[in-house]
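Hello,

Our lab assistant flagged a job as stuck in the queue for most of the afternoon. It eventually completed. Since we weren't sure the result was trustworthy after the delay, we are filing this so someone can double-check. Below is the sequence as submitted and the structure that was eventually returned. Let us know if re-running is recommended.
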Amino acid sequence: MEIRHLITFQAIVEIGSYTGAASKLGYTQSTITSHIQALEEEIGGALFTYIKRKLQLTHLGRELLPLAEDLLSTHDQIKNMQSAYQVKGVLRVAAPESLTISRLGPIIREYSLKYPHVKLILTNGTCGQNQIDLLSGRVDVALMVFPQLNVEKCIHYALGEEKIVLVSNHDGPDHFDEYKDNSKPFFITNEEGCSYRVMFEQYLLKHNIHNFQSMELWSIEAIKQTVMSGLGFAVLPYMTVKEEIDNGKLKVVRHAGKFDPIYSHMLIKKKKWLSPAVEAFAELVLDSVNESNKDAS
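-- returned structure --
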């Protein structure tokens, strides 16, 4: 069994196709196929199958995956023994847009200045997608805004509760009840699967409110601009609208009851060995949270 065969196996799992793995690793597709065939011959069974034309792991493949990950993690540790304390390489971070625009800027700037030999790749996605990307190995660190989490196979840091607010433009109603009697305003929101969108939609169901049309937009900035135009209201993390509230472009709309709590989280996939680049990023995030808590107290 060769390490390169396990690297190929892991790449196929991460990307979901032989073609994608070949592109990532710089191999021909026939080489990728020969690597998997060699693994299957040695292990004694198929590692992948197609279900409705989608590549999936077999039972044997699922059993191999954590063992391969541990072995490759140990392999990385051995390769980096001489520079075990040097922060370098590639760091892949996934975060929702809300945390990216409100929290991550100063952290990434400080990280880049302190560790110039790390190539940091930041991707934005829904919290659910970020978690999938972490568990599949596509990213090293996932940041999320989500209700309480209990995640296996991950190192989990709870970063604190995020205040979620209902906002309108400066001429909008002071209380949400004024919206309920008017079917014209839109609920301006982001993509399906967003945690605070789901939370608010559950709030509407709980209070038997059904008269709003939704307008789905591509970014928080687009949502804010649309709400400021007077077309409707939005539900967003307070950290993303604080500036507009402070300068009077948006205002918080009072509402009956309470929203279910939402929290910030940082997840790192459990491995036998974490790279110094991952550990250094996690340390900066936690330091930033601690500083924010001190300022708030």
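-- support follow-up --
The delay was a queue issue, not a problem with the job. The result is valid. The chain has three domains: 3-79, 89-158+262-296, 164-252. The longest strand covers residues 154-162.
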